[in-house]
Amino acid sequence: MDENHFKKSEKTWNLIAESFDNTRKKPWEICLEYISDLPKESIVADFGCGNGRHLIPCAKYCKKVYGIDISEKLLDIIKRKIEKQNITNVELMHSNLVKIPLKDNSVDSVIFIASLHNIKGRDNRITALRELKRVLKKDKTAMISVWSRWQDKFRKDFFKKAFQIQNKNEYGDIDVYWRQDGLDIPRFYHLYSKKEFEKDIKSAGLEIIDIKSVKLSSKKYADNYFAKVTY
Hints:
Structural class: alpha/beta
CATH architecture: 3-Layer(aba) Sandwich
Number of strands: 9
Number of helices: 7
CATH topology: Rossmann fold
Helix content: 25-40%
Strand order of the largest sheet: 3-2-1-4-5-9-8
Shape: globular
Largest sheet: 7 strands, mixed
Distance between the termini: 25 Å
CATH superfamily: Vaccinia Virus protein VP39
Order of helices and strands: HHEHEHEEHEHEEHEE
Number of domains: 1
């Protein structure tokens, strides 16, 4: 586990937390559909819960939600929101995603949305997926999403990099700058191919029920992959 990466990641997300919250208000429909299919008595963990845009709808529908994030500032934002809305079935946890502070087989579902790709190093990403498996009850499901390497915005760059020697970085690694509100802060991303995403999920001992290529912002090529998994 690269402690320096996680410290840097925490600092990055703390710096952009308020700006991020201002631009990430609306939950994704594909996530809402997944949540609405869960039994109402479900206990759910939200890995990388961010500003709570999926956690809060989940809390309104399910019995309990654990929100886990590396950024204390983002957790503070969620805390303000749930207090304002009188939501009492949420427990927030400050942690990176390779060591989840939950017991084995303790949740009925996990939503792991747009966070796996922010973890540096394939071993760390697979460890996070194994943590998902560890806390998830047998035969229950989880939803995982990552950014696609081949989306409109980055497609040409990665075609060029395919013919270059990768030094310390893995093919797919990139810094994506946060430039809202006058900021200029790099965020680490590992952008996935669909095949690589499938391989990492299976390497963690999870079974893919369904995997979709989805266009959320891109016009031509899918910018996200969503996988429904179990074990």
